[in-house]
Design brief:
By secondary structure, the protein is of the alpha+beta class. 43% of the residues lie in helices and 14% in strands. A hairpin with a 2-residue loop joins strand 6 (266-277) and strand 7 (280-290). Helix 6 packs across helix 9 and helix 7 packs across helix 9.
Amino acid sequence: MLQQTQVKTVIPYWERWMRELPTLQSVAKASPAKLHKLWEGLGYYTRVRNSQRAAQVMVAEHGGRFPENFAAVLALPGVGRYTAGAICSIAFNQPTPVLDGNIIRVLTRLFGITTNPREKQTNVRLWHLASELVLHASRPVAAKRSESSSTPHASPCSHLNQALMELGAVICTPRAPACAECPVRVLCVARKQNLQEQLPNSAQRTKMTARRFIAFVVERNGRLLVRQRPAGVLNSQLWEFPNLEILDDATPLQLARKAFGRAPAKLEPLGTIRHSITRYRITLEVCRAELSNSALRTEGYWLTQPQLQELAFTGAHKKILARLAAPGTGSAPHPK
């Protein structure tokens, strides 16, 4: 859950997840619908599918326990080098390096690294520095243990990695870093050369792409028409109302005819929803479409409001559903 998501956002999701699925075995056996519903709103839904696959691996290969070996952790679905290093360091006090955005910022400023951290050579150098730091932090503990094996000593590896993360999050911030409060300011090359604002030298982010869609709310006998997104596409397995991307100057009536195979008897605009996902800024026009009772050309399911509330919808279409369920608003989502 913490991959690409802030702690304050994750906490309520984590608490709800642990109430519903408190063990690895329960995660391994859960239905995809339940998993997606618990994850609804967190985004990057590949993570929840990887979570279940990882749980299934742990049940099948590790006796239902989380592995403590770095290679075994790294082999779990959805776990990369950073996540494996963070888990082994923080949970198991192992000298494994961690390199996230905060630590990259700290290291590039501290060592005056002016090349792009995303470039392979620079990234290798940063991982090497992170490895050297955590190994150095672990050496005094190893020496003390050799002197007195009967006295346990907590490894500082976890403290080091967490301190670097916190330093980047609180002091060595992307803009206006608090250099006067930094505990390593006398060692910082960027501070000495006044390069704090220029480092890290990251490439410009990909520009957001605007996309327009139209969604249709179709009701029949108290049930609404919805469909599930197929596997292998963005937001796969999540639910949505029938919709089309607006690629030209087609009118809502023309798009409705394309979606359903014929023109609706009535088409009523319900509002506009704006939503951002990955690098896309989405404008979603919402219309109510009244169709005759003859068979539709589009596939989907006719479900009641309570049934819809049990499903995991995409972010934009969840906003439509919320407006439809809001008291006093009828079926119309207000512009947002």
